[in-house]
Structures
1.
Amino acid sequence: MSLEHTASLLEENTDIQRQSARPIGPTTSDPDVRATATGTPAAIPREHLIRRVWPPMMIGVGFVLEVAWIVCLVYALVRFLLNFF
């Protein structure tokens, strides 16, 4: 196989890969999605962002409520023990 033949095969293969490559960036027609903001929260439509952020936010809220409940119980126990004894 000649060097020229190998070079032409490599060039054809590269052209085929370029044509079959998936486009980079959003492929939606949604006006809220901008090509320059891929991967940032601004690029995600609002309803999808809420669905993605809601579970961790609720875990955080539950944790804060649990800590507050434990603090109240400890406070009540300490007051009870100080008044009782």
2.
Amino acid sequence: MYGVAWGDEDRTIAVELKLRKWQKALHKAAIYQLWSDYSYVAMPKKVARSLVEPEDFKAAGIGILSVDTASKAVEVVLPAVLSTQAKGHYIGPYKEMLRR
């Protein structure tokens, strides 16, 4: 999932959704950092909360979102860090496409 938080700085946000395989999600979210300002992995609450030591996510600057599958509520477990890998030539076209 990809979106733009329109505002003063128009930040892009990418979210990788996974039910269980957090290692695979982490890998994909790391790739998303090339074309996104912030990158998150969203998982069911039970899975997200089981990551007691999310050091790999912290080290990569990737955030964790916990989704309550019953209520559909989303909680930020770990905020993402602004990507230092993001490339303007990737982000620019996405922003323009979403403006339309």
3.
Amino acid sequence: MVGTVLLVFGIAFLFYAVLPAVGAVFARTRWRTFRATVTRASHYPTASPAVIGSPRSQPLGRFRFFGTLEAIQGDDRIWLTNGRFSVAADLRNVRVYLIPEMERSESFSPSAPGASPAALGSVPWNRIFSLPEGTPVFVGGTMFSEEGRAVFRDSRSNRLLVVIHDCPRESVVMHAISGGRQRNEYINAVTLPSVAAGSLSLVLLAFTLLSAAERLPALLALTAGLAPLAPFLPPGVPLYFAYRGAWKKARLLRVQRDVVRLPLRWFPPADTRPRRATLLPDLEPYLMVRGTRDPSRPDCIVSDGASLELPPGITRVQVSLPRRGRAAAETDGDVVAFCGYSEDGEALKLRRPDDPMADYVLLPGDPEDLARQSEQSARASTLVSAAFIGLDVLLNLPLVFVLLSLVIR
């Protein structure tokens, strides 16, 4: 009997835990790779006619391009234009990512109650059968010169990034980072078939054991076979909804962590100067400026004793942190702005950057501190969610076993 009981637990562990966990790792890795690719592509310079050289097919380097669909040539090549310049992209074996329609807002609160960043979709190019002319498309990757024309191509060393977006160009990076992740890694392409196969196997094993008059192992097998339904049954079902709430909070806190850390990619680490300047990929000046809120002028910040007017339309990122961190932020009034700038003599003027992939945001505190606190809160919420679902199962499964033992004599 011991061997049979171990077999029951082994089947349940394999199909309910191991295989879904493998699928979760693949899902998280795929989206993490996507977010890293978007971040990397933001560092590429913009493709322009000036970089097209020899008519022979040769790599020109890594570039990015915002355009609209001009034409589809054959099965795998698309032509994009920005109104001044056209490029082609070969999409054989390329996965296309889809950002749903959304508007740019002057405030962004990734972890506020009720927040839910729009989930991105992805589909292989050969599954897309038609696209209307004028569809906004972003591509980033290795660009080649082919008969005097620019062509983006995929390669194993540098995968071609293709994003179809229904949002403003300035929002593509923000929405890709916030929405490019699995809502729940456990619910993936492997989970449903694995859980169904495990449940069916255990139920069949239970009937086999019943025919052999092994009642206790049969009850255990049948209980394990019904385990996927246990979280949705009373009295533990409130714990299931508590688990979902805590898991969503953890996911949104990870979104917040990535969003507040995102602008730092333009600057070298370990630098606490109040003002840090750099050049964007297209050699546009870009600035990170630390300061405090100006009580008398809400649209200004004070940095190094000088009052700087915030440019119109800057996105004000709102964060949700533990009570201690939130109170400290409200008390200090520290802010960090990321934007373009120009110098007029000794005067500094902040402005919207021309680069659509450059962050144009105002953060309510130091980005590293905000990211660290967000990460800690996300881990705590993940542990809480695991505790809720564990208690739910531990509460309901014994009741299922007792009910089955009353029915099966």
4.
Amino acid sequence: MSLDALSPPTTALLVVDMQNAFCHPEGTLGISGVDVGPAQATIEPMRRLVEAARAAKVPVLWTQQEHFPVDASRAKKRLASHTAKRKRVSALSGSWDMDFVDELKPLADDPSFVIRKHRFGSFYETRLEQVLRMLGTEALLVGGATANACVETTLREAYLRDYDVVAITDAIAAVRPEWEPTAHAVWAQYLGELATTDEVVAWLERAAAPRALELGHLLIQTADLDRSLAFYLDFLGLTVRKRDSFRDGRPLVVTNEGVGLTNGRPEGGGGPVEHVALRARGVRELAERAPAAGVPIVRGPEPSAYGVSLYLADPDGNQIEVFEEEAAE
């Protein structure tokens, strides 16, 4: 699979439990005899992933395990829970053990994107799913600790909710390294795709580069507007968003599906397509690059109904509009 099948605007990075309890030699796993070296080795890849995601405007969410000194629900179990198999209960509420590791803590600076959880699963009785819904997330890039407990449970939960799932293998550490090959094989077969930090960062860097993203709308110049409206509206079922007119008096019908229709051609106009509009990222940067690339600028960048627009001429002389929304200053 190529990560290019995913869309950055609908993707999020999920950082699972990068906490002292699971990654620091003096944390609960460390003092319980677990080699936390593999977990520490994921810290630098995770930092790279977070910074690359931020640069690409991909949301970064953090889960944070929190246990209570007294857990009445878990106390009802007749068989030993996993917390009873360590020297102490990990990540107690308000403890240093619960804190994110120092190397990553400054990056987890948005409380609204920190998801506290009380069991292995990041979705289980947390607000994660609602946050992802609000962000419009469809795909999750997942890393963190530990591979066979919280990470794998989260991967399964995400897959069962029909998210596209990517496990970033060198940013995920197991309690026992010998468990990792089997875990990876299972994930790749049943839950999602595997990728490395380098592969994900390269994809994020491509995603952050100025580029056209998708077709915004298409303006078609018709020989007979009434006949064209009968075809596009009555036969194909497109619906009208607005009716207007150009400065030169030509009528304009814009559909909700992105097709614009007009009668006749502007002075000097050519074929049936007057211009194509593409939603883009980095319109002003594209304008700066255009002269060196030999791309003629018709006009712009300039304010438009969409935010800011740049009008370019393609090699055949067609007018291509690229536009993006710009945040208000």
